[in-house]
Design brief:
alpha/beta; 5 strands; Alpha/beta knot; 23% strand
Length: 155
């Protein structure tokens, strides 16, 4: 499988050690690429919608129609860990096993991005920092592969 993660964030992450651990674990299941796009500066003179549109255009420029594109957004569908594992299995057989997760910046994702993906997924009705959601995503993808493999990791 090939997994791309597009994130609008600062490059420094307080969670880099944990991310590195999950990336190492995931290598047996997938080739993972993380693409960090630079956040637009938030200033008093700029409208939030304008900033989200600019960041959204950057994201849309990086999307590939050969991938199953999933935006992470608070208003998306929620899945149990078993349902998420089944989604991984379905995508493995669909689109050649290529999937892309999109994580917005501090202001979220534009409507153009949300409308241009195959699925909008939510990990919670709560909002998390983009660094934390990236770590949660890596852990959940690893958990999903472990479920499909039949290990006891998720118990």
């Amino acid at each position: 499988m090939k997994i791309k993660i597009i994130t609008v964030s600062k490059t420094k992450s307080e969670y880099s050690q944990a991310e590195s651990e999950f990336l190492k674990r995931l290598r047996q299941y997938a080739d993972i690429e993380i693409l960090n796009l630079k956040e637009e500066p938030i200033t008093k003179n700029r409208n939030y919608d304008e900033i989200m549109e600019i960041e959204g255009d950057k994201i849309l420029d990086k999307l590939d129609k050969e991938y199953f594109n999933i935006a992470l957004h608070v208003m998306g569908q929620q899945k149990t860990f078993e349902e998420f594992a089944n989604l991984l299995e379905e995508i493995k057989d669909f689109k050649g096993g290529k999937m892309c997760f999109i994580i917005g910046g501090p202001l979220g994702l534009s409507q153009k991005v949300l409308a241009g993906v195959d699925l909008v997924l939510s990990f919670s009705k709560m909002t998390f920092t983009h660094q934390l959601i990236r770590l949660l995503l890596l852990e959940q993808v690893y958990r999903g592969f472990e479920i499909l493999k039949g290990t006891d990791y998720h118990k």
